[in-house]
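Field reference: sequence -> structure
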Amino acid sequence: MDNEKEKAIGVFDSGVGGLTVFRELMKQMPRERLIFFGDTARVPYGSKSKETVTRYSEQIIRFLRTQNVKAIVAACNTASALALDDIEKNADFPIIGVVKPGAYAASQATKNGKIGLIGTEATISSGMYERLLKDINPDARIIGKACPLFVPLVEEGLLDDPVTTEIAGRYLAGLIDSGIDTLIMGCTHYPLIKDTLQKTVGDAVKLINPAYETARECSLMLEEKGLLNDKDIELGETAYRFFVSDEAEKFKSIANMILPLGILGAKKIAIEDY
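Structure field:
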């Protein structure tokens, strides 16, 4: 495609969670072509080392480059926290993560300065959210809690299930007791269980979904660089494309629960070849 503006935006995640970001991009930028890659063979990323997550992310960037993208959204908090700095160095197009937009939104939302953060073990231990939030608001108190079981529960499609409710109650009890008024869903899988999380923490706590903020930042960045597509696109195979590293049928069924448009399928690729 000759016209740079008409190229697609690449979006990737460890699994299906990044579809919450994809959904926001569809909503906020209806003229953009989007390509999604879900690393369903190697999910979850949250228990893996920085080196491994960086290697996986670099492989995915190399694959997305073959799809002729104009920008990439790392729709994965773990990859954004651990690998973004490294993958940005070698990229010849803009790459946006989900951590900075989420941190900024939380700092704007909190009234009492007590911000809860839930995420994978890797995201919590990276300290990335804490550093960003302290830069924005030095008086903020951040209380983090790793919730490793949420990703597999979402990947299994147990979005509204007594097991998920029970686990949420156990994970979030300490955060509720600490008096937080804001909670960052620091993993793109978590908005898929937003109702369960909101019921658990109560209506007085504002949930922050970095997906919305990330799509907004992506739009502003493309506008700034003169890369926003200004032509309407026809819905179909060329508008939205989906790739996975495993279990294409399972991905398709969960994607159809998340996205406003039914997807016809996802193509399985050998990501280790990149």
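Note: Residues 4-97+212-273 form a domain with the Rossmann fold fold (CATH 3.40.50.1860).
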